[in-house]
Amino acid sequence: VCPVLAEDATPEVTVLYEKSMKSFMKDDSLAQLVLVGSMDDANVELTATCDSAKSIWEKLLSVYEQSSGQRLDRLMEQFFRSEKDGDDDVVTHIAKLQKNFSELNDELKRVAKTTLPELLLMSRIMSTLPLEFFEFKSVWESIPIEERSVNKLTERLRLIEMRLPSKPDSTALVATKKKAAKKVERKCYVCRKPGHIAKDCWKKDKKQKTSGDAFVCIVEGVTEKEQWIADSGASAHMTSYRKYFLDFKEFPSPKPVYVGNNNAIMAYGQGTVNVDMKVNGKWVSNHLSEVWYVPDVSRNLFSVSQTLANGFVFRAEGNECSFTRDGHVRLRGIRTVNGLYALKMRVVCPEVPAEVCFASADQSLQLWHERLCHQNKTYVKEFLGQRGIEVCESKVSCEGCLYGKHQRGRFHERPSRPIVTGALIHADVCGPMQERSIGGSRYFVCFKDDFSRFRRVFFMESKSEVPNCLKVFLSEAKTAGHTIKDFLSDGGGEFKNSQVCGMLQSCGINIRYSMPYTPEQNGAAERENRTIVEAARSILHHKGLPLKLWAEAVNTAVYVLNRTGPTREKEKTPIELWSASSFNVHYLKVFGTKCFVHVPKQRRQKLDPKSVAGFFVGYCGEKDGYRVWLKKQNKIILSRDVIFENEASYSVIAQNGKSCSVVNEPSVGHGSEIELIKSSDVPDSDVCQEIGEASCDAIDSKESSDEQERNLRDRSMLKKPARYDNCVLLAEHAEPDTYKEAIASKESSEWPAAMKEEMDSLEANNTWELVNLPQDRKAIGSRWVYKIKKNADGTVQRFKARLVAKGYSQKVGVDFNETFSPVVRWDTIRTVLSVAAYKKLKLVQFDVKTAFLYGDLQEDIYMHQPQGFEDGTGQVCKLLKSIYGLKQAPRVWNERFKSFAMKCGLKQSNSDPCLFLNDEKSIYLIVYVDDGIIASVDEQAVKQFLEKLKSEFSVVIGVANYLGMQIECLEDGDIFVHQEGYCRKILKHFEMSECNSVSTPVEKGTITTDHSEFLPATVPYREAIGSLMFLAIVSRPDISYAVGVLSQVLDKPQQVHWSMIKRIMRYLKGTEKCGILFKCNEDNTLQCFTDSDYAGDPLSRRSTSGMIFMSYGGAVSWRSQRQSCIALSTTEAEFIAASQAAKEAIWLGNLLSELRCVSTIPVLQIDNQSAIRLVKNPEFHSRTKHIDIRYKFIREQYQTKQLDVVYCSSEMQAADIFTKPLVKDRFLKLRKSIGMHNFG
């Protein structure tokens, strides 16, 4: 406030006034600076005459402040004009409307002392819903008004949204086959055909075992084998009865169907089956489409998953199941004694036309017809008459001939054709092409006008965006002044869906589909695709251009055909009839001709060339210009300033060095086999660039240099997880990636409960409070992470949902400071287990639920409300406790638990910060984030600690199965550590479960490199190394050397390396339950072995160091590692290995000392006398002075009595297993000597 001086003020008051005024002017100047600094230039000029911060603020208020009436009008307009965003789910949309409604009511209450009723909000929600919820509106209107609420409406809409199919289909109960996920094309070594491997080959004699399940007859007259069974794992309806099919189409080649024992049975075709379904005591006729014919399937299978994909809801309650759609039950089933659901459905076999009567075999003409191999009966009668054999005349038909000679009816010409442009549009898709275009497309869709024969093509990456293409085409037709009356296409899913139908019906266009498997009824579109593809193939082959330019070739062919092709009116071209525009034929050039494009002066320097060479690949639509492919930059550019070489003289070799004559015609789908398409209104528009006034970087001088860019690994090289689409039974539970996937998954009843449990835990822990977001802060997001916890044998233990903050958006210094948090070493875990075996300690494993929530935050962090649990207020969560995903979460949890452990009388180990000790009660506590193991001989002390732990945190107590390590406490007190379940998981994942086992992980004499070709990127080499590495680190030192060698060639693996990986897996097959055994009666001396393989790497000639440390009979630490420098002698290699082992030995000695187990210093056992003398004495100076100083660390430790070095014979050198491949007997002997036992 500005100070005021009274007229009669005393001198003392005047001095104080001047001092206050000076301070006020300083603050006012600062306020003016802040205001002016936050304004744009226009507002600075607006307030230029203001002399104080107050006057500036009043000036801005007078210009920008809204009156109450203006704000009210704006809020009402926002509320009543808002529409649902297509990307928002129902809950998000309702939350937005609730926020608008709340703000509007607050303003009404302030201005008019009144509010709007909640019914208005519910009415507004219903009016903004898309067409998918149309049927729900009538259901909602039937609910009494007094029972309606926004929460009830939100919940019902959310449930309906979850049940909506991702690809709606209007066909009743039609099973639509999914497109199989992309996977590596494998080749069988039995039949030499792709698509499967030898063990799954259907040519092998693998007969399916028939089920011995009991049968309950629920449909009169239907036998057990004819009964239909609901199968949630079947990807399509399946039957073994060929007679069921109304129509049938054989597959080009048999398709394998994998059954529960991972064997394959074959499907030979598919078709439609008519059925009757019993609902409410009445039989209702229906049909099943795309039923697979599988002769070896033991029962008729009804695919639940395909039915759900078509909008049906499957419910199984007690002994009954039902399929409902639109609130009506369409099919029911009864549970049999074996747990399967037998459906109340019977097949209606196809009937023979009434005018056909079948003759029995005893009729003479029919009998002779059969004897003469079903020749024409007229000829049979004539032939027999010539030989004096009379047969009676009868109008009969042979059933065998109907099966063997049935021909399709003739297709007749349409009685009338359109006589105006736009009256009939033909549409069809073509693809996938064998190679992606430059823009990433694999399909194109063609729309052709029947009268003018004008065609329009769109290029797409997938079939899912045909509706977008159609929308653009309809808009173009309307602009050209044409009224489309009929739209003809096949019955594929890309055309026969609610989006396309709704679009055409809204425009008043009649929709016509060809019959299934009858492309002749849409012949104009089918023939057009063939014409376009043949033209594109010809022009690509003529100039030898690469296949990736197929989209440019197709676009050029369509451009030329539209301007030169025939029409119904002579002397007029399609483009003249469609858009009444003329065309100069001299504008056309030969596709693929070499040309030179002018580089504008804005895009080049003084001495740069004024042209760049390229190849003509098309025209620029209605613009006066050409499309040119720059081979070096692999770009398409547009330009009008182009000079062409002699068109007939130049051709270019395809980039891959192969002729383009191998271009195959893309498959043109029809019927229900066609899948969805994605479109673009310009071919490869994402790479099109113009040169001219709107110039781009295509001809930048830097890009024109000859320097070759480094090729980075494309994401397509990453191996995708295998997906088997034709599986009858699914063995694994899938973990969803998103909230929507969890709600829509088969475990939809489990995941909401898991999320509710997580939310309850968060609320009970007072993790956050809901507040309004401050203006100067941003809220971070959150997401749900789902995990299926499994037991050691792989069975499901529980479903777990974790709310995780999106910590990547946190800012250092604002949302966090320090982030480091330690985790326990595997060496520490194994050492404690060895001591536990020796002292016969009791082991208990525990898991702290929502551990990160117990840490207290020092910073203010705001987070959006969790998905699925929003309250619609628009408020955010101010975090009071740590939460998973925050950068500082591990650190604050670690500090919290450390504080708790010390309160319980435990002290932190000096060797490992995640190990806590109590010497008096012999309690050892290991913590890996939120998983821990407690070991003690005093069961009462363990019980007391666990009670304190439960009182402080929410804890789950379980068996000693820790971080994927299976820990078995044997009856004699020994402890056995292994990873049997993980081994089986690896073998199953890489399809090696049925392989033959071997005795060693790497064969003696195996080289690690050869001159064979590098592995293709699709081979999961890195994935296999990562899986095996975890085994080698945790419990399998016997494979450490083999895995270490193979991990050295991750960048360029060869076939020999992949063969070595498969050998390791074959070794694991025979040693699944091989692990480390810690014994209770072993000597307590720490055993340390170190060795090296001099110059064992054939490429780098570096040596390999090997070391193994054992405590109480079992290995607790080991390493197989290539040395970082080249050793010049065996002595030097051994000395370097010993120096590396010395550090680990001293650390382990200190750790065991803290555990009160070792009283002597560690002793390194080396099988090289020269290396031992070099450790003990500075000998051989001329031969060893070049050895790096850091390796002489071991000499210092020896001299200070921190460790000792002794000699052991090569025969007893246990570390030999980590340095080189060994023969079987030697390998098995050393494996046993390091405490490994195979109990499998």
Automatic annotation (TrEMBL):
Record-annotated Integrase catalytic domain positions = 414-582
Gene Ontology BP terms: DNA integration; DNA recombination; proteolysis
What are the GO cellular component annotations?
DNA polymerase complex
For this protein, the record's Pfam families field holds: gag_pre-integrs (PF13976), Pol_BBD (PF22936), Retrotran_gag_2 (PF14223), RVT_2 (PF07727), SH3_retrovirus (PF25597), zf-CCHC (PF00098)
Q: Which UniProt keywords apply?
A: Aspartyl protease, ATP-binding, DNA integration, DNA recombination, DNA-directed DNA polymerase, Endonuclease, Hydrolase, Magnesium, Metal-binding, Multifunctional enzyme, Nuclease, Nucleotide-binding, Nucleotidyltransferase, Protease, RNA-directed DNA polymerase, Transferase, Viral release from host cell, Virion maturation, Zinc, Zinc-finger
Q: Name one GO molecular function term.
A: endonuclease activity
Domain CCHC-type span(s) in chain numbering: 186-201
Role of this protein: The aspartyl protease (PR) mediates the proteolytic cleavages of the Gag and Gag-Pol polyproteins after assembly of the VLP.
The molecule here is called Retrovirus-related Pol polyprotein from transposon TNT 1-94
Q: Which organism is it from?
A: Araneus ventricosus
